[in-house]
Each structure stands twice: as structure tokens, then as C-alpha cells.
Specification:
It is a single chain. The chain has 271 residues and is mainly alpha-helical. It has helices spanning 3-18, 29-42, 44-74, 77-91, 96-112, 116-129, 134-146, 150-163, 168-180, 184-197, 202-214, 218-231, 236-250. The model is unreliable at 9-24 and 253-271 (pLDDT under 50).
Length: 271
């Protein structure tokens, strides 16, 4: 279970515990909700049917929330995002934290649907409810970076790291944004900080290797790629690293540089 689902369950169960609409027997709505969310992650099609049955038995907006999450896990991100946005002000009316959590999941749904504008809007409304939420800042930064608004992404990540300087993923996302802005020195500094917090992280090593290769340090890039393949052989980063190692091994050796070259060295080919 990821952090979004874990918090969403906690927040929604808190809502259920104070909701008078769910006080009467025979349905245990707390148990129904928790079971439905668990099923939504594992077997979303079954969860949709279960949520509909629960809705017919008085599950109300919490059953609809489970339906929306089942749609998310089923891959219908557009419908899920729209439904979550509709439910957030209802279920979060008396609990801003719960409302922000639901809007945060809506943002993630819109991001998965490829609608970065809707994603950023959902995250911004969530942050209006919970401005100190580091996870929401990081998630909005991802949406902004996907829209190629890299300086805005950096601003969100700066704010997140000011609140929690131990978030390795925030350093890594900020490094990626700085790389896109051609701020390689700042990108490498952020990668190194991420690796201090999470030694051997394959994604951080892969990004560092890319920068090394693009700036002419192919031996250093190969060291990072080799470390990824050696220490995280089953990761997606390892697949990319191995492909880069193979490609660089087949590349012809560069010609000796002339004694003087006023134009400087040629830019290295992208690995």
C-alpha cells in the first residue's frame, strides 16, 4: 500500500467514525470501507461491484469514494479524477485534511491521465487546505515538471525541502528539474544529497550517469551504470544502465584531440 492510500484510509475512516449517517446497524460501514479499499487495490473490477452493493445498502459517499479509487486502480484515470474532485468537498467538509487527501489522489489520477493542468489544479486546492503538506508539494512539483514548468517545480521542491530536508526523492526531483534547465552543477549537488540520504539509489545514479556522459565524463558514467547493474539488477534503472553500457562499449574510440582547439571539445553524443 502506498502512502496515498494509507493516509486516505485513515482519513476516511475518521470521517466514518463521526458520521451519523452510518450509525445504524446492520451494516458495519467502517469495515465495509476498509475491505472495499483493500479490494480496490488488488481486484478493482470486483471492488466496483462490491462498492455498488454497499452503496445500495446505504454506503453513500464513502461507497462512491471506493468506486472512484477502484476506477483509479482499474486504469480509468479520467473518470476517477473527476469523481474524486466531486467527492472531496463533500467528504472533506468538516475535515480539511481528509479533503486534501482526496484532492491529492485526484491530482494523481489527472497526472496519470496526462492532464497536467487538472492535476496541478487539484494539488493546488489540496495545498490550500493543507499548506504544510510536504507530499502534496512534491506531487504538485511533479505535475509542474510534466508540464515543463521547471522553475515552478523547483519552487515547490524548495518549499518541501525547507519543511523536511530529509526527503531524498525531493532532492532527486529537483535535480531532474535543474538538469532540464541546464543547471548541471546544481543538479549534481542535489543528486549527491539524495545519495547521502539513500545510498546506492538506482534512479539517482542513473540521472548522475546521464549528466556525466553528456558532459564528457564517460568513464564516470560507466562507473555509475555498472554500480546500478551490480546492486539493483532487477530494477528498471538497471535495464537502462545496461543498455547504455552496451552502447558505450560499441562506440568507436574518439580520435586524439589536436594540440590546440580554440573552439573547445565537441559535445559528447547522448548515451
Amino acid at each position: 500500500m502506498n502512502r496515498r492510500n494509507a493516509y486516505l484510509i485513515t482519513a476516511a475512516l475518521a470521517l466514518l467514525s463521526v458520521s451519523p449517517a452510518f450509525a445504524a446497524p446492520p451494516v458495519d460501514h467502517n469495515r465495509e470501507f476498509q475491505a472495499c479499499l483493500t479490494l480496490a487495490e488488488k481486484r478493482p473490477a470486483e471492488a466496483l461491484e462490491s462498492a455498488q452493493t454497499w452503496l445500495n445498502r446505504g454506503g453513500g459517499d464513502h461507497a462512491r469514494l471506493c468506486q472512484a479509487l477502484a476506477l483509479f486502480h482499474k486504469g480509468d484515470f479520467t473518470t476517477a479524477g473527476a469523481r474524486l474532485e466531486e467527492l472531496a468537498p463533500v467528504l472533506g467538509k468538516d475535515d480539511p485534511k481528509a479533503g486534501a487527501s482526496i484532492l491529492g489522489r485526484a491530482g494523481w489520477a489527472w497526472l496519470r491521465a496526462g492532464d497536467n493542468v487538472r492535476a496541478e489544479g487539484a494539488y493546488s486546492r489540496a495545498l490550500a487546505l493543507q499548506p504544510e503538506d510536504v507530499d502534496l508539494l512534491i506531487d504538485r512539483a511533479i505535475a509542474r515538471a510534466e508540464a515543463e514548468r521547471f522553475w515552478d517545480a523547483v519552487a515547490d521542491l524548495d518549499a518541501a525541502l525547507k519543511k523536511d530536508p530529509q526527503r531524498a526523492e525531493a532532492y532527486l526531483y529537483r535535480a531532474a528539474a535543474h538538469k532540464a534547465l541546464a543547471n548541471d552543477r546544481q543538479a549534481v549537488a542535489d543528486i549527491d544529497r539524495a545519495l547521502d540520504l539513500r545510498p546506492g539509489d538506482p534512479d539517482a545514479l542513473l540521472l548522475r550517469a546521464t549528466i556525466k556522459a553528456q558532459t564528457g565524463n564517460l568513464p564516470g558514467a560507466r562507473e555509475d551504470w555498472s554500480q546500478i547493474v551490480r546492486n539493483a539488477p532487477n530494477s528498471a534503472a538497471a535495464k537502462t544502465a545496461q543498455a547504455n553500457l552496451d552502447r558505450s562499449a560499441k562506440a568507436p574510440a574518439p580520435a586524439p584531440a589536436p594540440a590546440a582547439n580554440p573552439k573547445g571539445p565537441a559535445a559528447p553524443a547522448k548515451p
